[in-house]
Amino acid sequence: MIHNIQPINAKEHQGDLLLLYGDDTAARTLPLGKKEIELLNARRSVKKNQLIVFDRLPHHLYLLSFDSEQPSPECQELLRRKAADILRLLEADNVSSLAVTGVGVLPEEVEAIVEGLTLADYSFDRYRSADTYHLQTLVVDSLFLKPDILEADRRLWNRILWCREWVNLPVQDLNAPAFADELASIAADLDNVTCSVMDKKQIESLRLGGLLAVNRGSVDEPRLVVLEYNPSSVHSQPPICLVGKGIMYDTGGLNIKPDDYMQEMKSDMAGAATMASVLFAAADNRLPVHIVAILPLTDNRPGFNAYAPDDIITMYDGTTVEVVNTDAEGRLILADAIAYAVANYNPSLIIDAATLTGAAVRAISTFGIAAMHQNADNPFTLLSLLGNQLYERLVQFPMWDEYNELIKSTVADLRNCGTSPHAGTITAGKFLAHFAKQTPYIHLDIAGVAYFSKPQHFYRPGASGFGIRLLYAFLQMQDMLSDKHKK
Ligand code: BES
Ligand code: ZN
Ligand code: ZN
Asked: What is the 330 CA–ligand 3 centroid distance (Å)?
């Protein structure tokens, strides 16, 4: 989709137009006749939020009425979601170019609509023979959005759409080596970004025992990808490390997933795709923050020499882990990546994103992220706050000491799943927190939100890119919080 910015005069505009209408007192500036305004006002007195279509053949006027008097995150989310409804109408009317303007609305509200339209327009088309509908051009009124703001937004949205594409790609066409190559080639084109890709030999010499164990049943080699974005403005600052689960496909391994539980497990690398996308978006928009993304990549298969329940693995940091269930593989590769971050980067904060547990989906369904933290009160509070604002919300799960008992092993230091079937999301988070040691650490279990089986607002079925807007906003805030602004 091409985004343009230019002045738009609603009354004189020739072409398909979306008009946002947020303020009762501004009716006379609408491109409507007297009778139409009366009808609109009558409808608005009953219900503020409505989408009305006026046929102005050969064009259409889509009028979205809402209440702009009290700007709020809820209103912005409502607009993003309405944008998805509008896109379905545009598809039915086969509209290829749309102009957007507003009367009595805020710039943030126009931005939310443009965001909703952009995110709703994506579909996974690569393997389809038939053409699919897409909005070709979106023209935004320059009264509401400045070109540099739209440009920064557009770069971020592009990263979200690319993240979705990677997650939607089946493992047949995106295995660990292929994904690593793709990330390296993107990094090569970005300023201040370096990428190092470790192959199996290097991973062996580093002794990343968790990643190697999970990879043993696969014919594809594992990779450890380390992306670093280090702009000159913040060279000496310790980085924020972003760790992402990169299971290219999760069959469960020898504890193979039964029935249709395996379906959609191409999405088990969404954490890695999310973190790479966040780092790339930060680099695209030159955020003044030092970021390192550490992405362990492999699939989890029950092949020839697959790791087995009862195996005891020595992890990168020397911790020994009893394998109880080979389907609890994500925490093994993540634990190595977290320990690697601690040992090599002295980070100010580690955040991981992982499609880690089915229990997270059972706890809160597809409406948010199950989150935990250790030694990271302030950053967690900020992330939570931003989550509420952007509607990529976090629910905090506890880190209580009592859960440590559930992951103690009788034959090793830890076991890779809890002794009880309860609190599966928490025991997974506790397991990972062990490897972060004293480093401030935030764990994001995105199992419920990374991939939707059914359409949900501006998400079609498939990968969502959920969490990228949130983490990007969090990184954007770091500059404001940094020492240079402290008196
Ligand atoms: N990748 C899955 C978790 C998952 C399930 C993500 C559903 C998205 C949707 C993970 O590797 C897994 O299999 N977890 C097990 C852990 C258990 C064996 C302790 C689970 O949640 O059942
Ligand atoms: Zn699994
Ligand atoms: Zn998994």
From this structure: 5
